[in-house]
Amino acid sequence: MPFSSRKHSARAHSGGAQPGLPRLGLGVALLSLPALIACGNPVQRQLEGRWLGDSVESFEQRELSRATGWAKGVSFEFTGAKVTVTIPAEEPRSAPYKVTGVHSSDVRLAVLRPDGKSDPLHLRIDDERSVRWMIDDSHAIVLRRDE
């Protein structure tokens, strides 16, 4: 036997393990759990870190100054499967999120609310340093990675 030099009886195994094979304990399974979680979704790895509001897109000229000022107060911080969103004049909010769809550079997330429902979040990843928060089909807040 490649794993052990002594024979194992069927009674020595729990959970229906086959005789002759080593028993993988709960400890090994628990030790490998953080490694599996750390892998995460590739999109989660791309979003990881802090993103700061930089500018706006497709706002009318009369709204541009106010919208840009508001956007500069926005930040998203992604840590694992959790996002913290900071909006001007509001307390930062943190919640778990899931990637619900990816098509090319479009990423759709579901951010879990305390009541168990979720809010959609649509992002467009431009490159490793720029992401757009798609407010609707035409308006966007441009976010830059905090370095």
pLDDT below 50 for ≥5 consecutive residues: which ranges? 1-39
Strand order of the largest sheet: 1-2-3-4-5-6-7-8
Largest sheet: 8 strands, antiparallel, barrel
Number of helices: 3
Question: What characteristics describe this protein?
Answer:
39% strand, disordered N terminus, 8-stranded antiparallel barrel, 147 residues
Question: Secondary-structure map with pairings?
Answer:
Blueprint: H1 26-39, H2 42-47, E1 49-57, H3 61-71, E2 75-79, E3 82-86, E4 93-103, E5 106-112, E6 118-127, E7 130-134, E8 140-145
Describe this structure in words.
The structure is a single chain. The chain is of the alpha+beta class and 147 residues long. The chain has one domain (42-145): Beta Barrel (Lipocalin), CATH 2.40.128.280. Helix content is 21%, strand content 39%. The chain contains 3 helices and 8 strands, in the order ααβαβββββββ. An 8-stranded antiparallel beta barrel has the order 1-2-3-4-5-6-7-8. A hairpin with a 2-residue loop joins strand 4 and strand 5 (106-112). The longest helix has 14 residues, at 26-39. Residues 1-39 have low confidence and may be disordered.
Give a short summary of the structure.
This protein is of the alpha+beta class and about 150 residues long. The chain is about 20% helix and about 40% strand. It has a single domain (about 40-145), classed as Lipocalin, CATH 2.40.128.280.
